[in-house]
Amino acid sequence: MALSQYFAPTRVVFGRGAEEQCGVFLKENGATKVLIHFGGGSVIRSSLLSRVEKSLSEQNLSFVELGGAKPNPRLSLVREGIKLYKEEKCDYILAVGGGSAIDSAKAIAYGVMYDKDVWDFYSGKAKPSAVAPLAVILTLSATGSEMSNSSVITNDEVNPYDKVGCNTDLGRPKLAFLNPELTFTVSAYQTGSGSTDIMMHTLERFFHSGETFEYTDENAITLLNSVWKNTLKALKNPNDYEARASLMWAGSLSHNGLTAAGNPTGGDWSCHRMEHELSALYDVAHGAGLSAIWGSWARHVCSTDYSRFAYLGRQLFSIKEGSDKEACMKTIGAFEEVFRSFGMPVGLHELGLNLSSSDIEALALKASWNKSRTLGDFQKLYYEDMKAIFAEANKR
Ligand code: NZQ
Ligand code: ZN
């Protein structure tokens, strides 16, 4: 019998100024020399990096730095990080940034404990058995990587690129510093993309083939409602602390397993797998890629269980009238309106892509590993299904 598991070992330090305590906590956790890893420069512009350096120096911790993690973080930089960590004899990694910097840091943390190729963990050739200790200072509410078991890396050494996740509990950070003020500077587009991703982590878990429970379902609906309302507030007033704080917690709790509590299948995840192919080939923002295909996925699979969609819509959007099928269709449309209100696309053209039918086939072939794997749990998707979903998304 399949059993569900919930494992959330990360110590979360939350509130205004949380990042200024990082030196104290890292020292308590045994760090002496820290590799600080960050993205393209937002942490320098906001002077966050200087505050982090100060906090470490006050505790007499030494550090080296590696910036440059791109959105859809690349394997080549992971290799640089592994080399630097070893050469400098570091004993802790501190990621400062969004999901990309954190995922890149997770890959470095696996790689420094392994004397073969770190990509083995992403290609499925090997499983990590050890990891360097990892702390994160989060600057963007989105992926939940600060508590998740996942790291998603783009292999830029192959053509076309591959984007693949490595999921293991070793990848859950030991410490996460969450200060909502750090997200005030996130652009409207990245706020919308991040919030879409947060909602999708709960939606992916909501649609599954296992038993359902009132608590878990209501928890999911509360989270979706809160992200919806608070995203609109944050877009209107980027410095709204309460809205940013709600989004930050929602991001962490949407992807640490809480919204799948009791569900042994863990959820559907087709849209995520298909989106990873979009961002591998076209380098789009992950959340925007998700909103561009979700409605097409939903219309393709909803006949499996109209009532599941209808239940969500009745609770979340107060859809009162109609059969389950009618309520289901209204629910899908209502979600697309929510994504639109976040400034997100609900089709591939809106995402800025202009794909031919052979591009669509290539995407479906990649997502189905040349027709050798299926996706999904709510409804199993084969190559032809994936092609139909991408083609449908390509109409808008
Ligand atoms: O690189 P910098 O200069 O820091 O700028 C980033 C980047 O341009 C910017 N940004 C971040 N914090 C900011 C800020 N700009 C101003 N102020 C701030 N406070 O935002 C841009 C996007 O950052 P990125 O880290 O790429 O975004 P996100 O957090 O959405 O991460 C996306 C990556 O995570 C993966 C995605 O596939 C994608 O590769 N995911 C990781 C997951 C996980 N590890 O559990 C789960 C997700 O499903 C997802 O797949
Ligand atoms: Zn995601």
Tell me about this structure.
This protein is an alpha/beta fold. Helices cover 47% and strands 11% of the residues. The chain is built from 15 helices and eight strands. The protein has helices at 22-28, 42-45, 48-58, 75-87, 99-111, 120-123, 188-206, 214-236, 241-254, 270-282, 286-301, 306-316, 324-341, 357-367, 383-393; strands at residues 11-14, 33-38, 62-66, 92-97, 134-138, 150-155, 162-167, 175-178. Helix 8 (214-236) runs antiparallel to helix 9 (241-254). It is globular and about 65 Å long. Bound molecules: 5,6-dihydroxy-NADP and zinc ion.
How are the SSEs placed, and which strands pair?
Blueprint lengths: L10 E4 L7 H7 L4 E6 L3 H4 L2 H11 L3 E5 L8 H13 L4 E6 L1 H13 L8 H4 L10 E5 L11 E6 L6 E6 L7 E4 L9 H19 L7 H23 L4 H14 L15 H13 L3 H16 L4 H11 L7 H18 L15 H11 L15 H11 L3
Parallel strand pairs: 1-8, 2-3, 2-4, 4-5, 5-8
Antiparallel strand pairs: 6-7
Helix pairs in contact: 1-3, 4-5, 7-8, 7-9, 7-11, 8-9, 10-11, 10-14, 11-13, 11-15, 12-13, 14-15
Bound molecules: 5,6-dihydroxy-NADP (NZQ) and zinc ion.
